[in-house]
Amino acid sequence: MAQKGIFIRGARVLDPSSGMDGTADVRIDGDRITAVGHGLSADGCTVLEATGLCCAPGLVDMHIHGYLGADASDGAFEGLKTMAEGVAKNGVTAFLPTTMTVSYPELRAAFEQIRLCRRESEKDTWRGAQVMGANAEGPFINASQKGAQAAEHVKKGDPAFLKEFADVIRVFTIAPEVEGNLDCIREIARDTDLLISMGHTAANFDQACAGVEAGVRHVTHLFNAQTGLNHRDPGVAGAGLIDPRVSCELIADTFHIHPALFSLVARMKGDKMVLITDCTRAGRLADGEYTLGGQPIFVRGIECRLADGTIAGSVLKMNEAIRNMRAHTSLSLNEIVNMASLNPAKRIGIADRKGSIEPGKDADFAFADENMNITRTILRGRTIFQA
User: Fold this and answer.
1) Which domain holds residue 184?
2) In a domain, 110, yes or no
3) Are the beta carbons of 90 and 317 closer than 8 angstroms?
4) What Cα–Cα distance (Å) separates residue 377 from each residue in 6, 92, 129, 365, 366?
5) Cβ atoms of 205 and 235 closer than 8 Å
6) Which of 54, 185, 331, 359 minimizes the number of CB atoms within 10 Å of its CB?
7) Domain contains 352
């Protein structure tokens, strides 16, 4: 039986593609958006009264390690499903399970399960956010900037391994200054569509710029586990902020980055700024001891650390990231939503389907009150979460 249409009435529609921020109606037929505007026909549709609610595109998290006790590096289908169902409660409709610097056998197992989950999440029986592929944060990093990554599994860039999983991986992190890694960057940029990100790197400004010239187009969690902005050597952070070809991730939890910098990054990067959560398996769980990449981490409030105090991921939710950006900047809600929807969708190559409220795109929506508390999440015309 064909899926009945849905008519969203009276919501405050936030569409990054058009800049719309106002009351409007949205019509869904099947799994696609068919109309946005005023005076639309609701014939044949179930009416969803949304007066007083914000209707944003489904949010996209391109960098998330875990949630509700599960971790992408575990290589477990049920864990990925747990993540997908959990983040849907935060308005997320598409995400990249993100692996750590673990062994090749563990990475292969993780990518195989992510591939399977991506296929399953295309089905109408799927009840969580859609898995769009993998984010490989390592192992091709600099051990001196490993952060919470396991040094024993760090490797030089391996084009053959990346090509083996080029149908699954959408973005990977690499340190451009490590011997041989520029050649890897060039080969992957030439032969694949993977988004190449620099992170966990000790590169100076010139080495970072060389990485960009070789094919780097993204910076992993800006300012963290990389050389910072200095007036004599702008470092990786400076190279990412200055070059218009490069997009930058921001963990807007007010801990990884001082909130005074939120506006600075937004002004410099515009539509190349991407909000991420970098969430660990401790997401939505109580304070305590967990693991990340096989290492113990200790969670207290918004802080996740290794035993030696090293910062180790977050417990941030995507709707909280939006809320934090609103609290600490003068940006419009539409501009901030863009950073959590259309911007990441563009960076990982899914903007033809995701990230904005346009006719022909997947009917993915995050409904929230004025404080960005999620009340309903819709994936391809089906409600996958309702408060």
Assistant:
1) 59-347
2) yes
3) yes
4) 13, 8, 9, 6, 5
5) yes
6) 359
7) no
Give the tens place of pLDDT for each residue, 189-198.
999 999 999 9
Do 104 and 158 sit in the same domain of this protein?
A: yes
| 241 burial level (CB within 10 Å; 0-12, 13-18, 19+) | buried
- The burial of 270, by beta-carbon neighbours within 10 Å (0-12 exposed, 13-18 middle, 19 or more buried), is given as middle
Q: Report the domain count for the chain.
A: 2
Helices and strands (DSSP H and E) totals, the chain: 10, 22
Q: Are residues 228 and 166 in the same domain?
A: yes
Whether residue 37 is found in the same domain as residue 135: no
Nearest Cα residue to 293 out of 61, 110, 96: 110
- What digits encode the pLDDT tens for the residues 278-292? 999 999 999 999 999
Please count the residues of the chain.
Answer: 387
Query: Which whole-number Å values give the CA distances from 129 to 87, 125, 310, in the listed order?
Result: 7, 12, 30
CATH of residue 9's domain is 2.30.40.10
Model pTM score: 0.97
Residues 181 and 296 in one domain: yes
